[in-house]
């Protein structure tokens, strides 16, 4: 299973005063099972990019191949693509509409043509995986708290059992606890079910902690596409386009400049701590025993 | 007396069924005491549902206390005749930039407040110009708000409040829906107003990075003020903050972890420079 | 796409039309609409066309931008034109099974299409060159006498201006919700009418919820800024006629007289 984008261009409001080239010659390959972060400031084209991946927006030029098939072919079934590439929009709780949470989550599976029982089973499974208490399943989604609503909305997409899960700024507007809940949920989906995850965010620190590959978008183009530590090596260029590398990256670079032999590739607090303890206390790095957050060593 | 003073302030959201019987009571504010001096930059922290927004709405007389009292610039908010003067004294900026801009042109929106309080036309123009300038949005005065970025919209909203010449501005999670650039813009504008115009600022947020430069911080949870102090005092208690569903900036967290591992690093590190200095001192 | 509807979207530019008092523009639009439905003869049509394009040119709003507003009502226009084409009685020139096209029908269809196009373009000029707030100010002031008989003119004007401000936002939101539901497999296109209506539920419910939420937020934001109804309010941009406005009145009257004269003396050939 793979998605390949070949020279994708997208132009908004072509031929008017408001013409904007949202995407410019984007070439990407999304391989099976990856956990990818897409970063860029507002208007960099990242939201437009992900809407191409399930065919909601059609490129002005260029081709997208899903498992080798051109998705813009006449006989390509876009609905089938949308079944397999799940997209969670920004503020997804704004799309809830059913009278009960359970019905809302069943909406996707029902549209896939599943029977009522099967759809219900999917909904049940999805709601359980997002950790919503069972006594809430038959209540109105509108009575939930903000973080809960968002989890229900994500369950609505998970219930369709997508192979690729794309989330557009899933933590926007949430408090730290809500943010961690959502990100941990996504990381668990990736790990347990092997779903390919594409996480759109403007928080470098969130992304650094979870993903294995970062795509940086700027002015509709792919600026960097690499592992987090490789990307954050360009922290000065990132800053120029209004994106900051994680605070620890700056710290490590500053320490290095002052002559301390620390690991400048550290992007998470855990990595930084490891490296600092090693340098300052002469302690052996201990990759396995760390009970801190998951690490992404280069 | 301070510009905002709350004494044993209580607010209960009461839900009633169709017959008017009480279905449930939710205590959003539970005996809050607050004393804010004029010219201060105050931050109120708390996770969603901690009661911080409810508190904000009291300061602008949008909600009335269930029990206890609240004075804004010496005026009791529970008195009907004080409502408009209180709203004039304490302006408010809300979370969603789209849902608080009334007019379709930036300058007309900034003029909305002064129009409401009966400011003469010539003076409205003066105030609009000055407030737009103070948030750095003067060049956008003829623009439609729909074409602005989130941070710009919030600055317009702040200008709209400034044009009413308030003594105090309450910002209720003004950055929650913004990207990092927008967040910086809004915070910068708030600090500018505080320093240059001496406006008292009450910033309500759940982003810890935003309170580092505040004069004083209140942390709320379940309707109580659970912590208060200078940012340094607050950030030195990483564990307690986490218990209240809050985060600490990466640098503070790292400093805390290093200290726990036995390194000699002071409590409550706030900035990168401080941590660099502390580490270099250890390294010799 | 949905966001192409330009109605209620102010286009900032520095033109004479932009500077006119909204009352003049409202009145002129009204007169122009009346003229569209009472003109007769090719001369009047030319006059209406010339007037419209002169105003468009003066307004400095790109023509392309205006035409976009037309696309949205294309369907309505086609239906009206077809009705006129087939249902006007008279001498048939073409007969297709039970459908017959008469010369009068053909003429009516063309005229109707022109009228509707001009009507949309004419009103678009007003909405594109006047901020919704100015527009409602104009309406408010023109209709103020009605408040004496108990009509809440200020409240209505305020409601209108807010509605106008939120139309583009809600249109964008509709677009977004539609896409979000399509990502969950919703289908807004196929099926019969009942099916289609039923399929709109996942779009309409979230849209209403969002509209109510926004209304709630906005009401609070307005209150926080001391909004207290129309009483004791001053105006940032009070309406005052200047020389330019008087000239504009003269021009629109002159135009209307030309149309009426054409109607009386040159009603040929329609």
From TrEMBL, chain B:
PROSITE patterns attached to this UniProt entry: ABC_TRANSPORTER_1, ABC_TRANSPORTER_2
The record's InterPro entries line, in alphabetical order, gives: AAA+_ATPase, ABC_transporter-like_ATP-bd, ABC_transporter-like_CS, ABC_transpr_CbiO/EcfA_su, ECF_ABC_transporter_ATP-bd, EcfA_1, P-loop_NTPase
**Where does the record say this protein resides?**
Cell membrane
Which Gene Ontology cellular component terms are annotated?
A: ATP-binding cassette (ABC) transporter complex
Q: Report whether ATP-binding shows up as a keyword of the record.
A: yes
The GO molecular function terms of this record are:
ATP binding; ATP hydrolysis activity; ATPase-coupled transmembrane transporter activity
Q: Which UniProt keywords apply?
A: ATP-binding, Cell membrane, Membrane, Nucleotide-binding, Translocase, Transport
- Entry membrane topology: Peripheral membrane protein
Family that this chain belongs to? Belongs to the ABC transporter superfamily.
> Which PANTHER family did the record assign?
ENERGY-COUPLING FACTOR TRANSPORTER ATP-BINDING PROTEIN ECFA1 (PTHR43553:SF24), HEAVY METAL TRANSPORTER (PTHR43553)
Q: What is this protein called?
A: ABC transporter, ATP-binding protein
TrEMBL record, chain C:
Q: Which residues cross the membrane?
A: 29-56, 68-87, 108-129, 149-171, 248-266
Q: Which residues form the signal peptide?
A: none
| GO CC annotation terms, alphabetical | plasma membrane
Q: Does the keyword Nucleotidyltransferase apply?
A: no
Q: How does it sit in the membrane?
A: Multi-pass membrane protein
Q: Does the keyword Calcium apply?
A: no
Q: Which Pfam families match?
A: CbiQ (PF02361)
Subcellular location as annotated:
Membrane
Q: Sorted alphabetically, which keywords does the UniProt record give?
A: Cell membrane, Membrane, Transmembrane, Transmembrane helix
Please name the PANTHER family in this protein's record. SLL0384 PROTEIN
According to UniProt, the name of this protein is: Cobalt transport protein
